[in-house]
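Two proteins were folded this term; both appear here.
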Amino acid sequence: MDIKDIKTLIKMVTETDITEFEVENQEERIMIKRGSTTEVVHLQAPQVMSAPQISSALPQVVPAATASVAPAATEKGDPITSPIVGTFYRAPAPDAAPYVEVGQVVEKGQVLCIVEAMKLMNEIEAEYRCKVIKICKENAQPVEFGDALFLVEKA
């Protein structure tokens, strides 16, 4: 193969979704592999996808979480639960004021807390306008999928 043919192969690989190409004949063997940065992106995707995998792999945890929500169900209000496993934080920083307090009315989309999972800060927002009746977790406390974080009533 001459250099023109090799350039054509490289162009074909870079302009398509092909990440690896290999051709071999009796005299020569050419292998073209594309970008290690692509692999880094693929490594990050499973981290993001790990939350759904964990949640789908937790049917045994869901009954336990339901059991922890059950006492709250006897109290007045609807629970706002953790969508992921992580660490509950009431404020954006250790020296900052909490996002919400008991008795406060919050608007739809307003941040209620943060649940940190795998060094990612996930803001938990109100799904509707509501009044905070109870804060169910302590700051920096671990939470499981489905744990009640707040009890609220629609406002």
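Next, the second protein.
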Amino acid sequence: MNSVLLIGRLTANPELRFLPGNGIAVTRFSLAVDKDLSKEKKAEAERLGKPTADFPKIVVWDRQAENCANYLAKGRLVAIQGRIQTGSYKTIEGYKRYTTEVVAERVKFLDYGNRQQNNYDATGGFQPVDDEDIPF
């Protein structure tokens, strides 16, 4: 079974392209996915200059690719459900390069960026409300 579920933040803005000929949309981006480390192990890894996250490359197709390009940006939190795909190509110099990427079948936006929604502020916390603000 080839199934992947990732939650992470975009490391850069998505790149939208359209395939020549058929015009199918394809968007590419990478995620920063934290490794499941204890507080002590994470501090040690940071002290040693070792990465505390992985950075998988994500590919999204068709209408979902356009939505990702239009509504996602660097730093946004997303969940990706998809499959791993490997491939290879030859460089101009003749060297063979191997690729691994996650082909997203579903993309779930998990935050609203800088836009405020209800009582949720852009810093990631809820704003306090008075009892008078509650409608019931």
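The beta strands are 4-10, 15-18, 25-34, 53-54, 57-61, 77-90, 96-109. The chain has one domain: 4-120. These notes refer to the second protein only.
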